[in-house]
Amino acid sequence: MTTIHNLGFPRIGARRELKFALESYWKGASSRDELTALGAQLRQRHWQDQAGLDLVPVGDFSFYDQVLDMSFLLGNLPERVQGFHGDVLDNYFRVARGRSAQGTEDHSACCGGVAAGEMTKWFDTNYHYIVPEFNAATPFKLDAARLLAQLAEAQAQGVKAKPVIIGPVTYLAIGKAKDGSNKLALLERLLPVYAELLDTLAGQGVEWVQIDEPILVTELDADWQHAFNTAYHQLKACRVKLLLATYFGQLQENAYLAANLPVAGLHVDAINDREGVQPLINLLPTHKVLSLGVINGRNIWKTDLNATLDWLEPLAERLGERLWIAPSCSLLHVPVDLASEKKLDPEVKSWLAFALQKLDELRVLGKALRDGRDAVKAELAANAAALAARRASPRVHNPAVQAAVARSAAGLGRRESAYAQRAAKQAALLKLPAYPTTTIGSFPQTAEIRHARSEFKAGRLDYPGYQAAMRAEIARCVREQEALGLDVLVHGEAERNDMVEYFGEQLDGYAFSQFGWVQSYGSRCVKPPILFGDISRPQPMTVEWITYAQSLTAKPVKGMLTGPVTLLNWSFVRDDQPRSASCKQLALAIREEVLDLERAGVHVIQIDEAALREGLPLRKAQWPEYLDWAVESFRITANGVRDETQIHTHMCYSEFNDIIASIAGMDADVITIETSRSDMELLDAFDSFQYPNEIGPGVYDIHSPNIPTQERIVQLMQKAAERIPAARLWINPDCGLKTRQWAEVIPALSEMVAAAKTLRACM
Ligand code: GLN
Ligand code: ZN
Question: Which residue intervals define the domain Cobalamin-independent methionine synthase MetE N-terminal in the entry (predicted)?
């Protein structure tokens, strides 16, 4: 009999209940008791939603982040919050979010002034965790109260509980040694705490514990591989059975190691690594459970149940009781319930599965394996029909798009001339001063803008009324920029709710959910658009707004687009063709927009690729392939223009060392990046590569309300000029200004413009 189980459930709630409860609590509008009661209610509901599974995750619920929970469980709190007066939950939020000394929360005055924990992406997902902090002396001490309370709750509700924790090696690997010490040296001190935890769980009647070690799908050096052996040999004596869970990728060279660790079972991602399963079975000692993740925990498509059974049945035959099945990873990364969607196109909807539907699929697979396919005949037939409809749908397959892709010539991504020639022509046309100033695109999204948009969406404001409201904002934005004395202006993006959604809504091949929220960090969620079909652009998307802005000023206005790689990486994308193919279609569609802007007289066009870096595969060996097609997609989008048209790109991150050659390969005339917090040090990557084109290193952090000073900006630019010739430097903020107030933006930008004037005067 095949065991069916789940690795984790989305905690945010089908209606984002947790988000609203957290934000209300943080504001002081509701009590701690109300918040904890809501938590209990969500856990109870989510366990009910998982009824019928043989094992259900416990401990996957979190008020902020499962990695931070793990740090608390192990007693590993950053030094700066130790000895805090007050409640554990408050201390927890203090680590997560930081706390100001001036705040109104309890103990702000005595224990405030604390920086938030650093956040970073959880493997290749869009989920951000709070980075565990270590130093050579970090002590660990078990604090299992939270986990035990959830376990007791689950057991009281009759849940077949499988506690979920992060394994010791992954926990160390994803943390940061603040003093530069060797994190692995902490393993010895860490393991007894894990052992104590596992024995405590055994004492509570737990049979299986899921211990997540996703770091096994990345390249590990010998020390880290060795750490796995050390760790699991030491934990072997514990009285629970361990299911070692890996996900998000392929074990590859770590397969032998993973198969032979002394644990009772191994979970692998059979979506990302179906080919690895057979060889793994041959390696796996015959007493071990093999859990196969056969339902994609990272996308929103229905599983092909019949095809999955074709593959699973012989394995079930061979493995018998040892076969378990589950989603590929925690369902944290998908929305909760497709049934909530009332506005989604019914045809597209019929192809989708969110978390609850994925669990239904799991139950069907389990039943088919147990009782034969006939026992779930109707479900299998309905699934086959939905998949067949999707495969045949003209909504998915657009011959015109496919013909355009097939026709697209190899030279499509090349500019007419090299940068040096282009730069001369652009200089002659644009006549910009040295150290030209610009911004990244968005200006404050004011309450009036949001109001006009929601009225328009609700049908209470007609298009002419909406257009007039947006034009008024654009006019204001242009006026302010002229008054500030900026050199290359923008229209301010008033009409955009979101840099991906705005384009997705206007492209054919995209659909939008109402409640398809996925946790990004803490109470923050994103609602990725659904790229379901061949992509085409029925009509221009931005030309009207940009040309209106240009009509108001003699200064150049920069057209503003989101690039193909970012559109792809921030969407749920098709699983019926490679990501590269979807990206190329996006590239061709956005290219048309670029050419339309050029035709309309726009001389500067920015194509944002904020998410290019985050699409990098987990394994470095796979980077070149990704970078090749990602860069080529950008080039197809950007490089159809004449020499005189200046292409900008923007990337808001600060790690370029390992991808600088690809960044240069994009061949944008100007790239603007985030640098202010790194004190211009990240320009070293550009310097040592001898990056040939122009760069705008961000001179102030737009995430902070602080107003930068002219002196500081001059100082930063001087540092920049030590690395990049001044003639190729621009001055701009780190990123867009949409989250700021006008009252912050005006003084900040005037300092910036003043700094440019000072720098020009010293030339
Ligand atoms: N043009 C966008 C803006 O200014 C870029 C945002 C981003 O890169 N995240 O808002
Ligand atoms: Zn940015």
Answer: 5-318
ipTM for the predicted complex comes to 0.99
Give per-residue pLDDT as tens, 175-212: 999 999 999 999 999 999 999 999 999 999 999 999 99
329 carries a ligand binding annotation:
no
Nearest one of 645, 326, 696, 337 to 486, comparing CA atoms: 696
- Closest atom of ligand 1 relative to the 496 alpha carbon: 10
- Strands 670-673, 646-651: pairing is parallel
Of 481, 477, 483, 489, give the one whose Cα is nearest residue 555: 489
3-class secondary structure per residue, 237-266: CCCCEEEEECCCCCCHHHHHHHHHCCCCEE
415 is known to lie in a ligand binding site: no
What is the whole-number distance in angstroms between the Cα of residue 439 and the centre of ligand 1?
Answer: 10
- Look up residue 327 and give its two tokens: 């989603």
Kindly report the number of other CB atoms within 10 A of residue 487's CB atom: 19
Cα separation, 491 vs 468, in Å, equals 14
Please report, for residues 39, 139, 174, 175, 446, the alpha-carbon distance to residue 122 in angstroms, rounded to integers and kept in the order given.
Answer: 23, 24, 9, 11, 32
| Ligand 1 contact via 745 beta carbon (within 6 Å) | no
Q: Measure 420 CA to ligand 2 centroid, in angstroms.
A: 26
Whether residue 599 contacts residue 550, with contact meaning beta carbons closer than 8 Å, is answered with no
Alpha carbon distance 561, 500 (integer Å): 9
Q: Which two tokens stand for residue 141?
A: 């001490």
The stretch 291-314 carries a mean pLDDT of 98
Q: Is the CB of 736 under 6 A from ligand 1?
A: yes
Distance between Cα 560 and ligand 1 center (Å): 9
Residue 679 pLDDT > 90: no
Is residue 499 a contact partner of residue 99, using CB atoms and an 8 Å limit?
no
Task: DSSP for 494-538, please give it.
Answer: TT-S-TTHHHHTTSEEEE--SS--EEEETTEEE---EEEEEEE-S
The reply, when asked if residue 493 is annotated as ligand binding, is yes
Phi/psi for 646 (5° steps) reads: -95, 125
Is residue 359 within 6 Å of ligand 1 at its C-beta? no
Contact residues for 489 (Cβ-Cβ < 8 A; gap 6+):
438, 478, 481, 482, 549, 553, 555, 556, 557, 558
**Spatial distance between the Cα atoms of 63 and 19, rounded to a whole number of angstroms:** 9
The pair of three-digit structure tokens given for residue 47, joined into one six-digit string:
């366990």
Q: Is 21 in a helix, a strand, or coil?
A: helix
pTM for the whole structure: 0.95
Query: Is residue 762 a known part of a binding site?
Result: no
Q: Ligand 1 atom 8: the closest Cα is on which residue?
A: 610
Indicate if the pLDDT at residue 106 is higher than 70.
Answer: no
Query: What is the Å distance from ligand 2's center to 193 Cα?
Result: 41
Question: Which residues does the annotation mark as catalytic?
Answer: 703
Secondary structure (DSSP) of 695-753: EEEB-S-TTS-PPPPHHHHHHHHHHHHHHS-GGGB-BB-SS--TTS-HHHHHHHHHHHH
Helix (H) or strand (E) holding 604: strand 604-608
- Among the bound ligands, name the one nearest to the CA of residue 648: 1
C-beta separation of 431 from 727 below 8 A: no
State residue 309's pLDDT score.
Answer: 98
> What amino acid occupies position 630?
A
Exposed/middle/buried for 482, CB within 10 Å: 0-12, 13-18, 19+?
middle
